[in-house]
Design a protein that fits this description.
alpha+beta, Uridine Diphospho-n-acetylenolpyruvylglucosamine Reductase, domain 2, Uridine Diphospho-n-acetylenolpyruvylglucosamine Reductase, domain 3, 5 domains, globular
């Protein structure tokens, strides 16, 4: 009764929760929008199908309802394909068929007995928003982190207002019941599991815009994409994390960092106040004199101050003439030097040094094309790194005066819409025919050649849509007819393409703060992580580097990729960690400005000065 093909698809779900936000304008899963529990979204149904294959779930009324309420609308196929290349509709159909078969075979429907905890929670939030239904509990019990074990909670509760969380915390404390709070998807490092109560904040979606004070207040269920969308309407942006990450959760856990951190900062730089509920059910604001000092930093680690129920984010005004550009490099050190100089001179807003792997993965609509584009960029064009920048006309003019070749927004759009043509042999033959003693990318960037390039490459929504499955091409043609889909500023602000980084495997991101004036330290980190990965046969690549604090420091990401369903690969990462921790801990202990993000975890509200300059 279990389809092996559907099971392989289901087991590869990354738990990034992109199916829970409307990032493509397609809408979201109808049953998820109505029911809110993870089980009713495609992510949850993927987990449920895997669990049924392993015999982990009984047939219950809740399971039947989860399968039955899937309308097979196809939204999940479009969303998931854009991010991961997967087509979860096959799993949705297989789940419905499997449950229907169990019913037809006369399988006994197991009753679910509500216990005292569930009844108490239902009195707080309403009968439909607290449960111990096994098919719901399971989808809060696991994530792709291969070193964490599944842990089934006793109950899941979905509050809608702050005072309900206060009551839940008081009830849990009074009865010695452990609890964890969960944002939109959950950590992918095994941090949000409990055998007690899971508090899912998905129903808490309130957003308040104070335009006069340039502040946006977000409740804990609000995601980065949702908040950015609302402030963008007002002519502002906020510095937020990955699109499906909740704003409150991200601020508390690691503090927001992105390419925009160049201008807007990290950690406490991004907000003016936050509201919390502590473990005793007390409500406090960080700006109160009696509040815990979460702006300070404890080097040995510290627990979160409580459950964040509202964060007041700084809004930053947009400028009408802002555009994005990319400066290509064959040499990492030269790319970093430019990024540091731009930051020191306050040129531009967002700045990042991206590797060829990152860039190819971001812009390609399919994994197969991404692999070919990476080879084309790094080998044929010699674009091994790019310095990405967004800025007004004065910033862009300044970059051009630095005598570097530039891929401006119009050339980027042309290339993005013609990716399938870039990997064809006849294009490469033409490029080689234009070769000189300069890097090939310098030829590509020549303004006078762009009319020729446009004729050869045929950039259009139709061209880029040819890279995907035939039945999705009409959707991709419509999608790429929208100007924002090839606008570097919009893409960087809403970050919908960055989720593609885990398209071929689950990703482990090693994030560190580093001194930007000591390139040897950066090399020691990236080369050390690369050597360890190669030793254990782990796919790996440089991610990105973003300057902060006028180029004094930077955020560095290096990525490992593993198949989280393969126990052999899980063992590889386990053995690698034995060597990674001493490497990074040792550098952090001996080098000013180096700080591994694992020590910042749960201290994301702290001031960066507390952990970068101590």
């Amino acid at each position: 009764m279990i389809s092996e093909e559907a099971l392989r698809m289901a087991s590869q779900c990354r738990h990034y929760a992109m199916c829970k936000i409307d990032f493509l304008g397609t809408g979201i899963c109808p049953s998820g929008k109505e029911k809110h529990f993870v089980s009713y979204f495609p992510q949850g149904r993927m987990d449920i199908y895997s669990a049924l294959a392993s015999g982990l779930l009984p047939l219950t009324e809740g399971l039947i309802d989860i399968a039955d309420t899937c309308t097979l609308c196809g939204i999940c196929d479009k969303q998931c394909h854009f991010v991961t290349g997967m087509r979860p509709m096959s799993v949705m159909k297989a789940l419905k068929e499997h449950v229907d078969t169990l019913i037809k075979e006369g399988r006994k429907i197991e009753p679910v007995q509500e216990d005292r905890t569930v009844r108490a929670l239902q009195e707080i939030v309403g009968a439909q928003w607290a449960t111990n239904e096994p098919a719901i509990l399971l989808t809060y019990a696991d994530d792709p982190f291969p070193l964490a074990q599944m842990q089934m909670p006793g109950a899941v509760v979905l509050p809608s207002v702050r005072d309900e969380i206060v009551e839940i915390v008081n009830f849990a404390s009074k009865n010695d019941i452990p609890y964890v709070v969960r944002g939109n998807g959950g950590s992918v490092f095994g941090f949000v599991f409990t055998d007690g109560i899971v508090i899912d904040t998905i129903r808490m979606k309130g957003i308040e815009i104070d335009r006069d004070n340039w502040v946006a207040a977000a409740m804990p269920g609000v995601t980065s994409f949702e908040l950015q969308k609302e402030v963008f309407k007002q002519g502002f942006r906020v510095n937020v994390a990955e699109p499906a990450a909740t704003v409150c959760g991200n601020i508390v856990c690691t503090g927001t960092f992105s390419t925009w951190a160049n201008a807007y900062g990290v950690g406490a730089d991004n907000f003016v106040n936050a509201e919390f509920i502590d473990s005793k059910g007390h409500v406090f604001h960080l700006n109160e004199k009696s509040a815990p000092n979460v702006f300070a930093f404890e080097n040995g680690g510290a627990p979160a101050p409580g459950i964040c129920t509202k964060v007041f984010m700084k809004m930053h005004p947009l400028v009408e003439d802002e555009e994005g550009l990319l400066v290509p490099f064959a040499d990492f050190d030269k790319a970093v030097a430019l990024a540091r100089e731009l930051a020191a001179r306050r040129i531009g807003f967002a700045i990042g040094v991206l590797g060829g792997h990152f860039l190819a993965t971001f812009i390609s609509p399919s994994l197969a094309l991404a692999d070919k584009i990476k080879e084309n960029l790094t080998e044929t064009l010699q674009i091994k790194y790019v310095v990405f920048l967004t800025g007004d006309q004065y910033a862009r003019d300044a970059v051009r005066k630095m005598a570097v070749p530039v891929i401006d927004s119009s050339l980027f759009r042309m290339l993005a819409l013609s990716l399938p043509m870039l990997v064809k042999d006849d294009w490469n033959d033409i490029l080689q025919g234009l070769e000189s003693d300069r890097y090939p990318y310098e030829i590509l960037c020549k303004k006078e050649l762009q009319p020729l390039l446009e004729t050869i490459l045929e950039p259009s929504p139709e061209t880029i849509a040819d890279a995907v499955d035939e039945d999705l091409r009409a959707f991709y043609r419509e999608l790429y007819s929208r100007p924002e889909m090839t606008d570097p500023v919009w893409l960087n602000m809403f970050r919908i393409v960055s989720s593609r980084m885990a398209r071929h495997k689950h990703m482990f991101a090693f994030l560190l703060y580093v001194p930007l004036d000591r390139i040897a330290v950066i090399h020691r980190i990236t080369e050390g992580l690369h050597e360890i990965a190669e030793k254990y046969g782990i796919d790996n690549d440089y991610g990105f580097l973003t300057p902060i604090d006028l180029g004094k420091r930077a955020v560095l990401e290096y990525d490992y990729y593993i198949d989280h369903t393969d126990s052999g690969e899980a063992d590889k990462i386990k053995r690698a960690m034995v060597e990674i921790e001493p490497l990074l801990d040792g550098l952090a202990a001996t080098t000013k400005g180096v700080k591994w993000l694992k020590y910042v975890f749960s201290q994301g509200c702290s001031r960066k000065e507390q952990y970068l300059y101590i």
